[in-house]
Design brief:
two-stranded antiparallel ribbon; 145 residues; alpha/beta; 3 helices; 5-stranded mixed β-sheet
Length: 145
Amino acid sequence: MLDLISGKRLVFVGDSINRNQWESMLCMLMSAVKDPKKVYETHGRRITKERGNYSFKFVDYKCTIEFYVSHFLVHESKARIRQRRRPTLRIDAIDHGSSKWKGADILVFNTAHWWSHFKTKAGLVPLSNCGSSSLVMYGFQSCID
């Protein structure tokens, strides 16, 4: 597998399910490395269960295996609905962290279980090209009920 991804960036983006997939991939690849000292986290951090983004460099293969947290892959924001600000999703805008994924050779996305979250069940999503108070009923609502 390391020969297949030599010189490439393998990037996992998503929630805890994708993080587990990333950790499993990292463990499998580490077991194939002759010298574990030639694998390191590019920011010098240890893997913890706390929220975080990670990038592991495999020196001999000139590749990185990376993970970035993004629960929906799209931009999470707030919209004023009547007198309250409510969490919403901007389906016309990708997550702010997407610049970190740019240039990846292989992207693995997963956010499946978050789409039943209260932000999507409300069915309200503001669109940036409409007025700031414009809301639309999002068709996804019928799919998750």
